[in-house]
Amino acid sequence: MHRIVILGGGTGGTLAANRLRKVYGPDQAVITVVDQDDFHVYQPGLLFIPFGVGTTKDITRPRREQLHNGINYLSTAVEKVELGSNTVRLVNGTDLAYDVLVIATGAVLTTDETEGLSGPGWMEKVFTFYTPEGATALATALRDFEGGRVVVNIVDMPIKCPVAPLEFCFLADAYFQKRGIRDRVELTYVTPLDGAFTEPVCSQQLGGMLGDRGIALVTEFNTGVVDGAAGRLIAYDEREVPFDLAVVIPVHSGAAYVFNSEGLGDELGFIPVDEHTLQSKTSPNVFALGDATALPASKAGSVAHFEGEVLVENIQHFLHGQSLDASFDGHANCFIESGSSKALLIDFNYETEPLTGHYPGPVGLPLMKESHLNHLGKLAFQWMYWHSLLPGRDLPFVTSHMPKAGKNFVAPAEKEHSR
Question: What's the pTM value of the predicted model, to 2 decimals?
Answer without folding.
Answer: 0.94
